[in-house]
Batch of 4 targets.
Target 1
Amino acid sequence: MKFQLIIDRHTEQIISIEMAKGKAHDLTIFKETTMTYIHPSILIVCDSGYRGLQKLHSRILLPIRHKADIAKLTKSRQLTRKARNKKIARIRMKIEHVIGQVKVFRIVSEQYRNARKRLHLRFSLICGIVNYEKGLGLG
């Protein structure tokens, strides 16, 4: 089971949950589900699993780590690449902490053995608990 969370980076609240059966690429899930309701003015911060998203969305922060992408940069941009990647990693760290809080419940970090039709409901409830804890300042 593959899942995708959309998190507000300022409030660290989970906004949206997307799930896909089996093994699916991150960008494929994003294109099939989320792409329809993301406004073009919204800044998307994502990891390198979403390479190619910059062709579909104008405002995206994506780390430059792939050799082919580095080769396309000018010499001056190659020098600032490391600092840019650090800024992106700093933002992503908060997002990864929220994902870690969801994984504490072990519904997505281990094999799910209950009725699949209730999985999305339970996952939504867990994300609601994480949001509630964030709102109280416990998370």
Target 2
Amino acid sequence: MPKPDDTLARLRQICLTLPDTKETVAWRHPAFRVGEKMFCGYEALDGKMTVGFKLEAAHAELLAQDPRVVRSQNFGQHKWVSIDAADIDDWAGIADMIMESYRLSASKRTLAKLDAALAASAGLLALARRRPGYYLRT
């Protein structure tokens, strides 16, 4: 079972690399916002630490069938779901859901920054594949 500090550190690593993102406190728990809109939270629900994010309604409904997922607050057309942090073993999948939530929350200007950054890093990766001996440092 991951420690709460480990989970929060991973969330920070994912969320704070996205453009125009900041960590705030909402309801006494860490929350991540793009602009002023929250897209990811880390909070206690029913005595368990959970990671929450908003998803397209159909995606949220599909995930809600998993017993590890809790339906959270509904805000407008998008649905929030939370996953017990102790049950997370696929951080790539969590990152994908965080990205979906971010894209639902970010302004068009911020999304343009994100897309430009992704295109630039895809270009670097393509360059690295073409040039033997060229390695990207992370």
Target 3
Amino acid sequence: MLGRTNRRYLTKTDYVKGSECKKFLWLRFNDPESLPKLEDPTLMRLEEGNEVGNLAKRVFPNGIEVEEQLDHKRSAEETISLMRQRKPLFEAGFIDRGGRLYARVDILVPSGQNSWDIYEVKSSTSVKKEHIPDVSFQKYCLQTLGIDIRGTYIMHLNGNYVRKGAIEPKNIFTQTEISPRIREEVRRVPNRVQEMINIISQRTCPEINRSDLCCFPQNEAFEKTHSKDRFFLAHPNVDVLNLYGKKRVAIDAFRRGTYRLKDMNPELLDEKQIVQQKAHREGKAHVDRDKIREFLSSLKYPLHFIDFETYSTAIPRFDGARPHEQIPFQFSLHKVINDGENPIHISFLGSGEPDPRKEFVRSLEENVDSRGSIIVYNTFERTILNELSSKFPLERDFLSSAISRISDLLQPFRGFAYYHPAQKGSASIKAVLPVLTDRSYDGFSIRSGNSASFAYMKLIDKRREGIRDEETVKIRRDLEEYCGQDTFGMVLLVNELRKLAK
């Protein structure tokens, strides 16, 4: 047994996570209850990954499934027995020769007379850096058993695939060989495994120090598992990693023992970072009134403050959609007709159809004037409007006009026309809004775009099953409250910038 729990084997998930954080690894084996619970959007993506994995199996129609409910030992025994048939195996399980590691291979395909190929199925549309240690661990386990692995592949989604009718498994996937990268990485596996086993076997949980960056930026996981470590108790106000822009300079300073942004060597900083450092040293906001006035003078009435919410799925749910394509299902619009007038609020929320885009565009066209600025926060809405323009040629003139009138409210904050130390290096609306106004997202049932996407997908499922209940009403109310907060928050931010400009 590797840890205090009855977990016996180090799996590929443990290996990948353990490479990122030694403390997480120890807790996973010795005190798993102390780790933060997975949130609903994360669980949804895990379930989506299972759907992608099942679809990938259809690319190999003669494959044999190793029963998933078997324990590790029986799974490994069943796999070795089935390998004699020289057919593709799904969810093949292996225990390494040393009896400490367990690897489950998504798809194991016979290659030549005695060799095999590993196919690791991923929901992404490209090969990611984190995929390499995952596959390396698998190959290492199999090689210790004398199994010859000829090729290693990431089987990921084809981002250019467009659904037309039933999903075509062979066309929706791309198989990218990563064998050269794996050969180099496999050599590192034995030493890393031994280091991880040593960590798991410690009587007490290892503490995080300045050589470990896995806990930054601070988040719920940090608060629950790391904040009482001696290093953080001794340095409660570590903020150097909140440095704006490229993080390499901040990481190097942190590892050299500089923990406060105000203590960094100014010679290492660019123009924006120097402004940020000055604000942190003085403990007050930096305000560049000329830049603020320049931005405000570009706005033309009527002002349209707009925010979109979207959802995406790995496997497209309807014809004409691509894997992970962002599907807009909601917008909030606060419209100020003339200077000094109160904003008018207009909103659209899809009924729960998988493809709400036609009604989305229709409602947008009905409520956005043909003149005046369209104010967004960041460039996401511009991207969605461009996508819609290519999908709906009859509305292209309206959409093109809207795109041409976009003003990005992020600009004065990203450009450091305004910066307050409480923003912690971020220019996001969730960082800026509480600083300049009395508004925040505390207490909201939905507090992020990911949560909004998850909520709408629940509406899709309920509509498909014909369910109209109190939860449906609550989901719709929560979505409208969240999206409306973004656009009303933008109204407030422009009002505050006007006060600062004076």
Target 4
Amino acid sequence: MNTKNPFSMNIKEVLIASLLSIIPISEIRGGIPYALHYKFPLTLIIFLIFLNIIIVPIIFLFLDSINNLLLKIDIYKKFFNSTVERTRRKLHKNIEKYGYLGLTIFVGIPLPLTGAYTGALGAWIFGMNRKKAFLAIAFGVIIASIITTIVIVFGIKALSIFTKSFV
């Protein structure tokens, strides 16, 4: 990271990093590598992390409203009820055992499908307290951000032994 003025950054780069930080699958795991590549200042990287965290309440609202609309369709209602019930039965013991800490760890693992979207979906399906789930997911996003940053920074340095410097 450098000490660039965040207001002198190319707006296109900032928008792409922001988009990568809030879309499913990539989330912060896509935003941080992009930001590090373009040498974003720490303030902008923190902003990207905030974007990934702030999407959680929006996901909860979206799940509530869309689900309520779709439950009026019989096929969806049958599919939803059977799928959610099966998922709840299969994972109930793990949710009881690990709870919000498990949610934090799950979101904190920087792999595809383990981010804020999936964490919010899981918390919603299991009827977890939204405020506690939000905090657990937020901590998970922060952990994933730290791990992603470490892997990118040290991974690039580790790979540099295979490249020849011409300077």
